Amino acid sequence: MDDARNRGLRAFAGAPSDCRSVESDGTKRAAVGVPVHLSKSETGFERFTPALGEHEDYVFGELLGMAREERQALEDAEVIY
Q1: Which helix (H) or strand (E) element contains residue 56?
Q2: Which element (helix H / strand E) includes 73?
Q3: What is the SS3 assignment for 63?
Q4: Element (H, E) at 70
Q5: Cβ count within 10 A of residue 66
Q6: Contact 51, 21 (CB under 8 A)
Q7: CB of 12 within 8 A of CB of 28?
Q8: End-to-end CA distance of the chain
């Protein structure tokens, strides 16, 4: 893992002062960095990585068209979390 970090393949999203870049336990949220580094180009993040479950309502509801009751039944059966 240290080699990946040294080559910039493991990066941390967000400014330390922004709460969206820090998990609830205080650790910074890791993300996959840019694997290619060109001498005249800067790389970095423009947006934060999503938190676990952050887009579930959009994916299950809007994209897949699941009703809230259907999703709740799958959560109760531990099919999805």
Answers
A1: helix 56-56
A2: helix 68-76
A3: helix
A4: helix 68-76
A5: 17
A6: no
A7: yes
A8: 28
Residue 57 near residue 72, CB atoms below 8 Å: no
Residues of the chain with pLDDT under 50: 15-17
d(CA 31, CA 9): 8
Query: For residue 22, what are the CA distances in angstroms to 31, 41, 69?
Result: 12, 27, 31
Contact at 8 Å (CB) between 23 and 29? yes
Q: How far apart are CA 67 and CA 80, in angstroms?
A: 14
Residue 44 is encoded by which pair of tokens?
A: 């970095």
Q: Which residue has the tokens 């799958």?
A: 74
Q: What is the pTM of this model?
A: 0.49
Q: Which of 37, 39, 55 is nearest to 47 (CA)?
A: 55
